[in-house]
């Protein structure tokens, strides 16, 4: 049976570039992979056919020969279908490895196939949990913190090698930083055990850092806390994280804010709530009270006569500032009418007298409730 045209196999036009070929092969390989088509006996043949086509067309020299002579370029003692005498099945391990690297390379450390991993690796990002008071969150502040981290080694200037020596290419992986092993259809890659995936080795490591190019040290930093921060706010300090390995770039430091609970105020976004107890007499007769504000000031609030527990009053622009953008929240005063305790005999007598003089209109909620209770009981009797 005559072989199909390789461009038709991959579903691309003749002369397609490397990117189009890889994209087309990746699609075919995923479509006809034997593991995905256990019930389709024709899938494996199509899978091998796509592999052979891509293995030929991905190589510029083979592609040029195929474009000129077609399949005859690899027959009768020619290149042998993938560069091997008498071949024709293609080098699946090589071809599929290209697609594997393209799909999963970023999850394997961001390495590109065919190139060695950079000797220098970026330092890790660090996290620091900081607790601030509500007053500091309101006004903003500056905090000094001590962060244990890694810094570049001064003995080797971050190279990891003693006496200024240069790292050497790892002989085990030829500087690739990874080694491959063939397992059936698949080519499995793993970090080179000789160099730890760096691609280079240091024969004479620095005595201060042991070849890492960095040492542990505690650093003192000043952090600006903007006004309006909330619990969960994250502040990024670029370049203040862990030093890179063997001269690599430094990571970042992330400050995570936790705003402490306050004894007087409860926060709700940019708004504040304050529960204010008032006496029974003040709630009944009305009057003025002074309440605290988060900026340390005082505000006078008028209590209407006959106020009940739970009544709220708003103080505009007395809340928290918005972290991003203009504006400021409000402060809500919630009244809590306090029942008097530890009464003297005279106070008890006065309250009893007051109770005798009371009318339904003096306690409308109580009167309404007990009328409903009486109606409920009457209904149950009937």
UniProtKB/TrEMBL annotation:
MF terms per GO, please?
A: ATP binding; heat shock protein binding; unfolded protein binding; zinc ion binding
Note the HAMAP family from the entry.
DnaJ (MF_01152)
What GO biological process terms does the UniProt entry carry, in alphabetical order?
A: DNA replication; protein refolding; response to heat
Details of cofactor binding: Binds 2 Zn(2+) ions per monomer.
Ranges for domain J: 5-70
Give the function comment from the record.
Answer: Participates actively in the response to hyperosmotic and heat shock by preventing the aggregation of stress-denatured proteins and by disaggregating proteins, also in an autonomous, DnaK-independent fashion. Unfolded proteins bind initially to DnaJ; upon interaction with the DnaJ-bound protein, DnaK hydrolyzes its bound ATP, resulting in the formation of a stable complex. GrpE releases ADP from DnaK; ATP binding to DnaK triggers the release of the substrate protein, thus completing the reaction cycle.
What is the required cofactor set for this protein? Zn(2+)
What this protein is called in its record is Chaperone protein DnaJ
Q: Which PROSITE patterns match?
A: DNAJ_1, DNAJ_2, ZF_CR
Q: Any idea which UniProt keywords this protein has?
A: Chaperone, Cytoplasm, DNA replication, Metal-binding, Repeat, Stress response, Zinc, Zinc-finger
Give the organism, scientific name.
Answer: Pacificibacter marinus
Q: Which CDD domains match?
A: DnaJ, DnaJ_C, DnaJ_zf
Might you report a single GO cellular component term? Answer: cytoplasm
What's the chief localization of this chain?
Answer: cytoplasm
Description of its domains = The J domain is necessary and sufficient to stimulate DnaK ATPase activity. Zinc center 1 plays an important role in the autonomous, DnaK-independent chaperone activity of DnaJ. Zinc center 2 is essential for interaction with DnaK and for DnaJ activity.
CXXCXGXG motif repeat spans: 153-160, 170-177, 192-199, 206-213
């Amino acid at each position: 049976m005559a072989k199909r045209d390789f461009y038709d196999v991959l579903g691309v036009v003749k002369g397609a570039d490397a990117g189009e070929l890889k994209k087309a092969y990746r699609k075919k390989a995923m479509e006809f992979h034997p593991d995905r088509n256990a019930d389709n006996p024709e899938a494996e043949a199509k899978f091998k056919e796509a592999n052979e086509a891509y293995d030929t067309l991905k190589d510029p020299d083979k592609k040029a020969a195929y474009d000129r002579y077609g399949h005859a370029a690899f027959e009768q003692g020619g290149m042998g279908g993938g560069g091997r005498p008498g071949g024709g099945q293609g080098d699946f391990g090589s071809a599929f490895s290209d697609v594997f690297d393209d799909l999963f390379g970023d999850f394997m450390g961001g390495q590109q196939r065919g190139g060695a991993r950079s000797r220098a690796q970026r330092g890790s990002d660090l996290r620091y949990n900081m607790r601030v008071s509500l007053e500091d969150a309101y006004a903003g502040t500056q905090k000094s913190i001590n962060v244990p981290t890694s810094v570049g080694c001064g003995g080797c200037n971050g190279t990891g090698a003693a006496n200024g020596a240069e790292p050497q290419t790892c002989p085990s992986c030829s500087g690739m930083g990874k080694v491959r092993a063939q397992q059936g259809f698949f080519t499995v890659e793993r970090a080179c055990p000789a160099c730890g995936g760096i691609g280079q080795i240091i024969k004479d490591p620095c005595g201060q850092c042991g070849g890492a190019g960095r040492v542990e040290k505690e650093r003192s930093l000043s952090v600006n806390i903007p006004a309006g921060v909330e619990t969960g706010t994250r502040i990024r300090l670029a370049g203040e994280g862990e030093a890179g390995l063997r001269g690599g770039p430094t990571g970042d430091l992330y400050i995570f804010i936790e705003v402490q609970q306050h004894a007087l105020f409860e926060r709700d976004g940019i708004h504040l709530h304050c529960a204010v107890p008032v006496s029974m007499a003040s709630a009944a007769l009305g009057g003025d009270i002074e309440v605290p504000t988060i900026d340390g000031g005082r505000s006078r609030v008028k209590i209407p006569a006959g106020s009940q527990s739970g009544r709220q009053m708003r103080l505009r622009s007395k809340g928290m500032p918005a972290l991003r953008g203009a504006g400021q929240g409000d402060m809500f005063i919630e009244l809590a009418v306090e029942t008097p305790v530890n009464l003297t005999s005279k106070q008890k007598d006065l309250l009893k007298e007051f109770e005798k003089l009371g009318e339904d209109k003096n306690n409308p909620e109580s009167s309404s409730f007990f009328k409903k209770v009486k109606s409920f009981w009457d209904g149950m009797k009937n």
